[in-house]
Design brief:
The protein is of the alpha/beta class. It has helices at about 30-40, 55-65, 80-85, 105-120, 135-140, 185-190, 195-200, 205-210, 235-245, 245-255, and strands at about 5-10, 25, 30, 50-55, 70, 95-100, 125-130, 145-150, 155-160, 175-185, 215-220. It has a single domain (about 5-245), classed as Spore Coat Polysaccharide Biosynthesis Protein SpsA, Chain A. The strands form 2 sheets. Strands 1, 4, 5, 6, 7, 8, 9, 10 and 11 form a 9-stranded mixed sheet that branches. A two-stranded antiparallel ribbon has the order 2-3.
Length: about 260
C-alpha cells in the first residue's frame, strides 16, 4: 500500500444561502464546525485536519478550540475551489473534503473514500454515496442523486429524479454525500478545468469532472448521512445524538 500523506479539509462559510451563519450555530453546546472537525480527527487516516474558510469568525472559533484553519478568498462558488486554494498552503498527496455541515460524520466514512485511492494509483476522485430513503428523496432537488456504471464509477449526478421509470424495476440510485477524496494533482487539474454547462445548470461541481472524462469512483455506505441545511435540521441532529448509541458515543468522544 502506498505511503501517502492524507489531508482532510473542511470548507465552511457564514454566507450560506439557505442557513446563514450555520457553521457557528450551537448543537448540544458545540459549534457545528467543531462537531465536524473533531469527528474528522477520529479517522485513522487523518494526518492533518484543517478548516478552510473566508470568515475570520470561523477561523477564530476553530483556533480557540485548538484546531487549525486557513483563510481563503470569499469569491469561490464551489467548495472544491476553496479546497484547492487551501491546499496551496498545505501538504498532502490525498485530499479528503468533508463538508462543514456534516455533524454526524462517521470517521469510517473518511477511511471508505480514501481506500480506493490507496488501492488504485490511477484513480483520481472518489465520492461517498449513501441510500435514498424514499420517493420523496428521489424528487427532492436539494438532494443530489448519483448513478454508477457496473464498475462502480459515477456516470451522472443530478438534482432531478432519476431514472424515468417506464418499467417499475429496482434501480440503484444514491445520494451524493458531502464527503469526497482527490489525489492532489487531480484536484489541481479539476480546478483548472473550465466550468461546464451541466455543472452550471445543476449546480453540481462534480459534473465538471464527468464532462471532462475524469473517473469518479462511488463508494456506497449503508447508512444515511444527515447534513444541516435548515434551522429545523438541528433538532434532527440532536435527536440522533441523543438516541443513537453510536452517535452518542462519538459525541462523548469529542466533548
Amino acid at each position: 500500500m502506498p505511503d501517502n500523506n492524507i489531508t482532510i479539509v473542511i470548507p465552511a462559510r457564514m454566507a450560506s444561502s439557505r442557513y446563514p451563519g450555520k457553521p457557528l450555530i450551537e448543537i448540544m453546546g458545540l459549534p457545528l464546525i467543531e462537531h465536524v472537525r473533531r469527528r474528522a480527527l477520529l479517522a485513522k487516516e487523518s494526518h492533518l485536519v484543517v478548516v478552510a474558510t473566508c470568515d475570520e469568525s470561523i477561523k477564530a472559533a476553530v483556533e480557540q478550540a485548538g484546531g487549525k484553519a486557513v483563510m481563503t478568498k470569499d469569491t469561490h462558488e464551489r467548495c472544491t475551489d476553496r479546497i484547492e486554494e487551501a491546499m496551496e498552503k498545505l501538504p498532502g498527496d490525498i485530499v479528503v473534503m468533508v463538508q462543514g455541515d456534516e455533524p454526524l460524520l462517521m470517521p469510517g466514512a473518511i477511511s471508505a473514500v480514501v481506500a480506493p485511492l490507496l488501492a488504485d494509483e490511477t484513480l483520481p476522485i472518489v465520492n461517498l454515496l449513501s441510500p435514498l430513503e424514499s420517493m420523496d428523496d428521489h424528487a427532492n432537488p436539494n438532494i443530489v442523486k448519483a448513478v454508477c456504471n457496473l464498475k462502480g464509477e459515477v456516470i451522472f449526478f443530478t438534482r432531478s429524479s432519476i431514472p424515468f421509470y417506464r418499467e417499475q424495476i429496482k434501480v440503484p440510485v444514491y445520494r451524493q454525500t458531502g464527503i469526497m477524496a482527490f489525489r492532489k494533482e487531480a484536484l489541481n487539474k479539476f480546478s483548472a478545468l473550465p466550468e461546464t454547462s451541466l455543472e452550471r445548470a445543476e449546480s453540481v461541481d462534480m459534473l465538471r469532472a464527468i464532462e471532462h472524462s475524469m473517473r469518479i469512483a462511488g463508494v456506497v455506505v449503508d447508512y444515511v448521512t444527515i447534513g444541516v441545511d435548515r434551522p429545523s435540521d438541528v433538532a434532527l441532529i440532536e435527536s440522533a445524538i441523543n438516541n443513537d448509541p453510536v452517535q452518542n458515543g462519538l459525541f462523548k468522544s469529542i466533548t
